[in-house]
Structures are given as structure tokens and as C-alpha cells.
Amino acid sequence: MIAIIRLAVFGFIGLSVVYLVVSVYSRSERREKLEKQFDAGDVAGERDAYIEAGMQAYRHGLRRKLILLVYVIPAVVVAVTVYLVNYQ
Amino acid sequence: MLRYLKWGFWTVLIVIVGGFLHYTLPHHDIVRLTNTYNRLTTVGENAIFYAAPDTGTGESTATRDIRFIEAVFPDETVIVYRNEDTGWVWPPYFKYDSSNLQAEATNLKSTAAAPRWISVTHYGWRFPFMSIYPNAVNVHEVAGPDVRIIPWVNILVLSFLAMMVFMLRRMWMQFRERMIEPAMAEVGETWDAVDAKADAARGRAAGFFGRIGAWIATWRGKPRA
Fold first, then answer.
1. Spatial separation of the C-alpha atoms in residues B185 and B37, rounded to whole Å
2. Interfacial B residues in 8-47 facing A (CB < 8 Å)
3. In A50, A64, B105, B143, which residue has its Cα 20 to 30 A from B85's Cα atom?
4. Is B88 in contact with A6 (Cβ distance < 8 A)?
5. For residue B223, is pLDDT > 80?
6. How far apart are CA B215 and CA B195, in angstroms?
7. Where residue B126 falls among pLDDT bands split at 50, 70, 90?
8. Which of A24, A25, A35, A67 to mutate to test the interface with B (most CBs of B within 10 A)?
9. Calpha distance B45→B133 (Å, rounded)
10. pLDDT in tens, B100-114
11. H-helix or E-strand containing B71?
12. What is the CA radius of gyration of chain A?
């Protein structure tokens, strides 16, 4: 019983690191994309304002929420493994 | 010399990673089960190839009562599996039904005259020299000794690992492009500025330390982008 709690705690810590890294990466990719879009020249207005608005949209978007799957998928994989190994 | 070192390094790395994966990923044997029993087993130097002591099958002693399953391949070579819980950490099979598995295996025993062919899912290696046994994870009956089993788990795990390596590489490239290279460029520009200042102030500035002082001075009051 202790072992499963330990797995949950350390798993959560490990996955939080992954979550952090993935969200930093995703944000960086989005910012780069916005910068390139602006620099391609088909956007009117000021560069910083355009990028800031794009990042604001990203913060409320679906893609950022999808990163939470980092927690969900491993939990599902563990549950499926437990089922297949012990109850089949 | 350096070339050999490089090759040596990669060879060692591939052997370690490959060996690790080969030990940990599941394999299927199609065998005939001949005997199931448990035996007091001393676990010593080879403990790394047995279950961790706190999984329930062997609390903290060097001698454990371990369940074994004996089997025969179609070509009459033999194999012995151990049947231990894995616990909740490593390897991540989360197996805690070894008693049930032993009962199932006993139920599926057969003789050479009337063989029943069983697919044993297992991980690990059999090295008689080190007294280590693969750990059986699942048993189920199959139609015959020539049934082909598609290793879905291995396909999934290996593709996932390949994707992880690819993503880590992309993340690192992105980090380098967005964080390290701009910082390096900035340092380069700063050095140029320092050089210019130093040229102007040559004779007054005290060589190397003057340069460092000038460089540190450029940190102050720098407008943020």
C-alpha cells in the first residue's frame, strides 16, 4: 500500500517536471510562430502588440489545456497495465 | 584515438540501452508447462534480477520462498521462469497476482503425449551461471506451437521512446535557438562594446581587469527589451 502511494507521489513530481518543460517549449514555439508571421509582413500594426495579443489568445486556448494530458495519459497507461497483467 | 573513443562510447551506450530494453520489455515464449512449485531461494549478489524486497514475496531476508514455473519448448529445450510480484516501481508491470498466475500455470500443465501449448509472457533473462530467471507475467493457451504473436506492447513502447527522443531533441534545439544563441550574441556584442571602450581608454584601463569592470558596468541600467 505504501508502495502505491510512493509511486503516486514521485510520479506526480516527475510528471510535473515534464509538464513544466512541455509548457515552456509549447509557449516558445507559439511565440516564434507569431514572430515569423509578423516578420513575413502580411500583418498590420505593431510587432510587440501583435505578439502579445497572440500569446494572450494562446493562454486561453485549447492547446495549453491539452498539456494536462501529460498527467492523464500515464495514469491511464498504469491502469490499463494493471488490468491486463492482473485481471486477464 | 579519439575516433576509437567515440566509437567505443557509442557501442557501450547502445549495448547498455539495448540490453536494458531487452531485459525489461515483454517477450512471448510458446511452451508446454511441465511443473510448478516454490523453492527457498537465496538471493544475494544477483538481487538486482529479483523482485525488490518490499513487494511482499521476500521481506528483507536473503532467503525467499519463490514460485517457479518449469516449461519445455517445442524443440525439447527447457526454460524455468520465476513468478514474483513486481511491485509498483520497476519494472513497471504492476504485477501483484503471482499466486493466481501460479494457479493458472498449474492448471495448464500438460504431458508430452497430450501437449497443450501455452504462451508465456515474461521479461528478463535466464542465466544459469548467475541463477537468474525470467519473470512470468501472463499465461494463456494458444492453438499450437507455431502461433505467431504480434508484440504490440513492444511496438507501442519503442515507438513512444523514439518519439520521446525526437521531442527531446526538438526541445533542446528550440531552447538553443531561443535562449542560448541570443545570449551568446549579446555577450559577443558586449565584448565588442568593451573592446571599443578599452581601445578608447587604453593606457588608463588596467588591462584584463579593466575590461571585466567595463563589462560588468554594461550590465547596469541596460534597457529591457
1. 69
2. none
3. B143
4. yes
5. no
6. 9
7. very high
8. A25
9. 14
10. 999 999 999 999 999
11. strand B63-72
12. 19
Give me the residue label for grid cell 508430452. Answer: B112
Residue of A nearest to B171 (CA): A25
Share of chain A above pLDDT 70, in %: 99
Q: What is the 3-state secondary structure (H, E, C) of A9-74?
A: HHHHHHHHHHHHHHHHHHHHHHHHHHHHHHHCCCCCCCHHHHHHHHHHHHHCCHHHHHCCHHHHHH
- Mark residue B70 as left, alpha or beta (left: phi above 0; alpha: psi -120 to 50; beta: remaining): beta
The 10s digit of each residue's pLDDT in A39-78 is 887 777 888 888 888 898 898 989 889 999 999 999 999 9
CA distances from B21 to A79, B110, B196 (A): 22, 32, 57
Tell me the pairing of strands B78-83 and B117-123: unpaired
C-alpha to C-alpha distances, B162 to B26, B53, B148, B152, B168, nearest whole angstrom: 18, 32, 25, 15, 10
What ipTM was predicted for this assembly?
Answer: 0.80
Amino acid type, B60: S
Q: Is B182 on the interface with A (CB under 8 A)?
A: no
pTM confidence score: 0.74
What the block records as the C-alpha cell of B142 is: 494458444
Q: Is B75:B121 a contact under the CB 8 Å cutoff?
A: no
Q: Which of B144, B118, B162 is nearest to B21 (CA)?
A: B162
